[in-house]
Sequence to fold (278 residues):
Amino acid sequence: MQLLNGKVALVTGSGRGLGWGIARALGRSGARVCVSDINDVELARAESDLKADGSEVMALHLDAGDLSAFQDAVDQIVARWGRLDVLVHNAIYMPLIRFEDTSPELYWQQLRVSLGGLFNGCRAVWDVMKAQGGGHIMGIASGSSKKGFKDEVTYCTAKHGQEGFIKALSLEAAPYGIALNTVGPGKIIKPTRITWEEFDALPESEKADWADPVELGKGFVWLAAQPTHRFSGFRFDAGVIADTVAAEGYDFEFSPEKVTLLPDDFRAAQAWYANYPD
Ligand SMILES: NC(=O)c1ccc[n+]([C@@H]2O[C@H](COP(=O)([O-])OP(=O)(O)OC[C@H]3O[C@@H](n4cnc5c(N)ncnc54)[C@H](O)[C@@H]3O)[C@@H](O)[C@H]2O)c1
Fold:
């Protein structure tokens, strides 16, 4: 019996990078996984990698910024597998660019994928998760959820905004058993935008310091296996959880230090939710 047997997951932007690792880790833990992306070349690779793992997988071309396409994808998943337990909105469009060079079109194009994708994903899975008694929705946190960086005005806007979205919606979602959290990589990974072709061409010495996304995916597996009423509105870090799982197994005794780089923020959020009026 594997941790996520019977569960169904959808990961956006999972053709490569962190999303690919999350999808593989979920599949290896027994979940049926829909990999999705706008890049069909990357998507085909992810599909074949999950198949090689022995996972039950479906691949869908999905632009996370398109609400009707998102709804259509969720309909296809439910038609095939009968449910949807885990949505990970991982897709990102992230040019590094100075504010002065950022056109309004580029600003909204970026937010359309990041914040728009999160809104679309929540809308698309909401009724399904409500009807089945709950589910997990996860966004991807970052250092840019917490701090500012040059050339990242729009990206930092998106990542900070996502935290607010998740915290607020977690309160409205609680009566339906829907948990919303963010999970950062928590370790250095391949820089965003590098394709599989570029990655394969890089010398091993350049990749040596990048964490394995499949290993980080164990952080998402752990969270997906939690009862949905246990944690909602929090920020986790996958690398911290993966290290804890390696040391203590998936059923470790919980403390914030074992799941996030920001344990004080975690405790502050716990206090906020504990005192929030019904
Ligand atoms: N790489 C890092 O250093 C880092 C650090 C912290 C957080 N993150 C976060 O991790 C997540 C994944 O980033 P990554 O570094 O693996 O990026 P990546 O560029 O390797 O992969 C992103 C994937 O999203 C896809 N995509 C782009 N626009 C899309 C859309 N509209 N709809 C669906 N798919 C789309 C791309 O085709 C690509 O396959 C992002 O949320 C990012 O913010 C990355």
About this structure: Residues 8-274 form a domain with the Rossmann fold fold (CATH 3.40.50.720). The chain has a mean pLDDT of 98. Residues 40 and 166 are 29 Å apart (CA to CA). The two ends are 38 Å apart (CA to CA).
